[in-house]
Amino acid sequence: MFQEPPAPTIHEEFGRTKGKRADRSTRAKSGSLPYTWTMPLDADAIDKLARLSALDLAADERAQVQIDLERIIELVDAIQAVDTAGVEPLAHPLDGVQPLRPDQVTETVDRDRYQRIALAVRDGHYLVPRVVE
Amino acid sequence: MSIGPFATIGQIRQALAAGTVSAVELVDQYLQRIAVAAELNSFITICAESALANAKRADAMIARQGARDLVGVPIAHKDIFCTAGVPTTCASNMLANFIAPYDATVVAKLAAAGAVMLGKTNMDEFAMGSSNETSHFGPVANPWDGNRVPGGSSGGSAAAVAAGLVPAATGTDTGGSIRQPAALCGISGLKPTYGRVSRYGMVAFASSFDQGGPMARSAADLRILLHHMEGHDRLDSTSAAVGATGDLGDHDALTIGIPAEYWCGLEGDLTRVLEEAVREVERLGHRCRDISLPHTRFAVPAYYVVSCAEASANLARYDGVRYGYRAGNPADIQDLYRRSRSEAFGTEVKRRILTGTYTLSVGYYDAYYRKAQCLRRLIRQDFLDAFEQVDLMLAPATPSPAFERGLGRKETAADQLDDPTVMYQHDVFTVPASLAGLPALSIPCGRLGHLPVGLQLIGPHFAEDRLLALAEAFQRETDWHLRTPPKFARAPV
Amino acid sequence: MTEAVWESVIGLEVHVQLKTRSKLFSGAANAFGAAPNTQACPVDLALPGVLPVLNANAVRMAVLFGLAVEGRIAERSRFDRKNYFYPDLPKGYQISQLDQPIVRGGHLDIAGKRIDLTRAHLEEDAGKSLHEDYAGQTGIDLNRAGTPLLEVVSEPQLATPAEAVGYFRALHALVRYLGICDGNLNEGSMRCDANVSVRRPGAELGERTEIKNLNSFRFLEQALDFEIGRQIDLLESGKAVERQTLLYDSARRETRPMRGKEQSEDYRYFPDPDLLPVAVAPAMLDACRAALPELPAAKRERYVRELGLVDYDARWLVADPAVAAYFEAVAAACGKPKTAANWVMGEVAAALRRDQKDIADIPVPPAQLGRLIERIEDATVSGKTAKSLFETLWHEGARDRTDDRDRSGVVPGGGFRLADSGGVVDVLIENRGLRQVSDSAELAALVRTVLDAHPEQAAQYRAGKTKVLGFFVGQVMKTTAGKANPRQVNELLRAALG
Fold it and tell me: Are strands B440-448 and C76-77 parallel, antiparallel or unpaired?
């Protein structure tokens, strides 16, 4: 059981190991990519991600984020090698159905208590800078 | 005072019942040790006053009704569990000022069992990390070697238990955050089956993975704690309505699967240490056999796709409007959102939010999120197929013992860059069970140099009983779990 | 003649607030009008670590709706997160159903036309932003956050604003029949988004715009009228319609683009990991089938077929389930459905309008109106007397109800139970001597007397000026204080003068 030569260190990236063991996989077929995945992580893409995430990125941070994301995408792109045709996505490890709650009012709201941790309130309202529709 | 700081819960309960130690004495002892071991930085909040008050109540209760459950047993909670009236920061500047108006179900249940909370332990920010270096409150040191990390994200809990600052603590495990720090700090840690322990009041990182669990000095203690943490909760519809974990049953010889994919990429002599653990399991009368979990190498990528996606949505509620950090003088609503979040979230958290946003975006959803979910099914199926053949699995918990701070940081003259994916790979042996929602634990099984090595046992869904039984049997024959870090071994303080 | 060369295509998405006791995913109360943030519990406030737990009753209501429109109830449906930042969306995502809605298909019939439904799905409502009160700042009230909504999406099969309103009305009636929504449009219980485009007949669908948040039948019609005109003007002047999201400004009677919606959003939907798929258990399905009330279309058909009403009247009566119930009770009490229909659509509707009362608070119980109609039919009272009697009953009843309310704080039962026997009608007729004089001999004598007293007019009549008959009728009625049976008086006068 231990015939596999120990790989040097954890710095060798595991997700992309092309070890003999993994080749035993009957389901994982490398070379059967449904398409080639290339995603340009250009400045526009980073801008869009930052906007959707409601994050401001400073100029130097932006460059770093771009490099990091490229590395992460490269890591996760390993999954593209698997042919998943006919495999049902698994959204949840329990793979079951959810129990339902009886329609009863069980919560008593203590607004003052909940708003003690609030940042800006007036007359029971949370305040934010003016929003225009 | 007849009880040392490294006593197990079992020993503490006996001493409390016999009256040879009081809950107040215990709290005093551990509070002193926490103070002395401040260099570990394992606590974010210490609740000295309430702990002493609760200990007094516990002593009164023991005097009145005798010892029962966890009455008078000191514990700590990972600072991801909401505690009414005590700050819950999740080790983030975002929640540095947050005090929940409710207790997490786990906190409430343990309190109801009489456990006395000493404080809230340090962790990686929002549980995102494997080294406890992403905490807003600074890194936690490994009690076995101050230059090394305790693992993460439940690093504060692991370090505190290992250093004898508290007999047991809660942790949470999303991709290995209980098992990996337990392994790196030489303690026992259990990630229960997804759904066994309520997630209510546990700050969410990745909802379909997050699972609270116990971290303690022995598998027997894990069983005691799990008993007081588990159970269906009407406030968490993903909590399972299954029978409670029972007492130690009579277990026949088990067939233990050794997944081949987990034995490559191990550092140095780790293989040798683990082989010895396998032989020990065989000496216990169990049969070990090779099995294969063919999709293992896709677990880390699939895990990062799905967990970052879930996190990107789970962390959207931190917007500076109702609680938490709020940027000063916002120009408009977008400015309020963006600056509050940018100023208060750390680098790793932002990185994962952006990654999740990316993989869920129009055009990439199928290639990443959906694909990863398909992999998740294949990985889960690997386990289900294998558990047709074997009762439990045995594997390394981590590919290396505790590493030094700054893993993945290239220190060259020109740039100082983190490669976050190097750290992500450290989760390689823990994420598969997380993807499949399986129960898994880590117990100490040897040393590599001066550092503890963790042995991982993985069981079928809701087979905690069997898992704990094997771990308990292993610990009856070995003493790795009783070893203490030299620097903190002196008792009482 | 632009109407002839353009046609409009409209589809509606209607958000129906479900009348559950608690919210969709939390145990906070689901009620309108509370002080700000007093019905927002930690789940609604999206505090850290809290979790959604689905309300069974909301699922039941969605199933009830699905069965009523003959849609397909999904064996498994799923909740997804729709991600965007907005201050009244505390979690930063809305829990909705994207590709596995609880109901697919189905239809709703409007006058002479079947409108297909695409789907109906469950989702949570957002809170409210108040822009007016706090100078320079917006106030956020999260009481509404988490209120269960059923979003009902139609196919783009509505051809005119009038059809769109007809559809909205039919949906409005249906959800109230099912008891799943209170239908209070002015409280936002039903809100409508309209997708509209125009095209040349037979051409491909044109670019569409979406008008958000229309909460009245009138505004829906006005907004569509304006928007269709605007699109036609654009196209006729050689410009293109731009796909955009619009708001209707009812004061200016125009649509205008919503701010902040210029970039097409990327909502990053994905299955909510806090919520496992929903399975509708066979038991719930059976219970819902059994609980389905008679629906407006079936009721209308029955009114025409069994009660002999004309289609217009039937349609009018079934629009509001409470009105239909009242009508049916009156009709059952008197056995004269057509007369009952005339009274409900005439006197009753007018009085309700005049006093701004809801049918639920009507002061005249159906048994009283039924008895009154009986007394008209059996000629005990004249129609005119009956109308004044109705007014009496109305005001007496209203006072009784007020008294009741004063005593107990609430109207007992709230329904039509007060003084609900028709006996009070007969007592009033007797006590006030309102019984119509139908005795032929008595009336014949009266007629004789009147004719004798006015020989000139009698001569005029006989000379061919038959209009003076009215004069004699009036004289007879005056002598009897209006209690003479007018039909008999007419006959007797004609005979005597003939």
Answer: unpaired
Residue A87 exposure: Cα atoms within 13 Å on the Cβ side: 22
- Is pLDDT at C107 greater than 70 in this prediction? yes
Helix (H/G/I), strand (E/B), else coil: C470: helix
| Tens-digit pLDDT profile for residues C126-181 | 999 988 767 789 999 999 999 999 999 999 999 999 999 999 999 999 999 999 99
Average pLDDT of the segment spanning B94-99: 97
Chains with 3+ CB–CB pairs under 8 A to A are B, C
Non-local (6+) Cβ contacts of B420 within 8 A are A68, A71, A72, B348, B351, B408
Q: Do A114 and B101 touch (CB under 8 A)?
A: yes
Chain C CB contacts of A102 under 8 Å are 56-57
Question: Catalytic site residues of B?
Answer: 78, 153, 177
- The amino acid occupying position B41 is N
Specify the long-range contacts of residues C184-188, CB closer than 8 Å, at least 24 apart. Answer: C184/C32, C185/C215, C185/C216, C185/C217, C186/C215, C186/C216, C187/C32, C187/C33, C188/C17, C188/C215
Name the pTM for this structure: 0.88
Q: What is the pLDDT of residue B193?
A: 97
Distance from the Cα of A82 to chain B's closest Cα (Å) equals: 8
Parallel, antiparallel or unpaired: strands B416-418 and B255-259: unpaired
Given strand A125-129, what is the order of strands in its sheet? Answer: A121-122, A125-129, C137-141, C128-134
Question: Cβ neighbours of residue B86 under 8 Å, at least 6 residues apart?
Answer: B45, B47, B50, B99, B117, B120
d(CA B190, CA B223): 9
- Cα of B164 vs its chain's centroid, Å: 17
Instruction: Identify residue C102 by its one-letter amino acid code.
Output: I
A100 touches chain C (CB under 8 A): yes
Residue in C closest to B316 by C-alpha: C92
**Beta carbons of B171 and B147 less than 8 angstroms apart:** no
- Residues C44-58 have a mean pLDDT of 98
B308 compared with C474, residue with greater pLDDT: B308
Q: Over the stretch C344-400, which tens digit does the pLDDT of each residue have?
A: 999 999 999 999 888 888 889 999 999 999 888 887 888 888 898 899 889 887 776
State whether the Cα torsion B355-B356-B361-B365 is positive or negative. positive
Q: Which residue has the tokens 């932003």?
A: C129
In sequence order, what are the beta bridge partners of C197? C9
Q: Which residues of chain B make contact with C270, given a CB cutoff of 8 A?
A: 309-310, 313, 360, 365, 369
Cα(B14)–Cα(B68) distance, integer angstroms: 10
Name the residue type at position C7: E
Q: What is the pLDDT of residues A5-62, one digit of tens each?
A: 333 333 333 333 333 333 323 333 333 334 444 456 888 899 999 999 999 999 888 9
pLDDT band of C260, cuts 50, 70, 90: low
Q: How far apart are CA B468 and CA B71, in angstroms?
A: 23
φ/ψ region of C208 (left if φ > 0, alpha if ψ in -120 to 50, else beta) reads beta
Residue B34 phi, psi dihedral angles, 5° rounding? -60, -40
The pair of three-digit structure tokens given for residue C241, joined into one six-digit string = 């319609």
A–B CB contacts, 8 A cutoff, strictly below: 251
Q: How far apart are CA B219 and CA B469, in angstroms?
A: 8
- Cα C213 to Cα B151, C9, C18, C155, C198: the distances in Å are 51, 19, 17, 18, 21
Quickly count: other Cβ atoms within 10 Å of residue C241's Cβ. 18
Q: Which two tokens stand for residue B22?
A: 């009081």
Q: What CA–CA distance (Å, rounded) separates A46 from B355? A: 10
Counting residues of chain C whose pLDDT is more than 70, the rounded percentage is 93
Q: Are strands B409-411 and B416-418 parallel, antiparallel or unpaired?
A: antiparallel
Q: Which of C21, C24, C37 has the highest number of chain A CBs within 10 A, making it the mutation to test binding with A?
A: C37
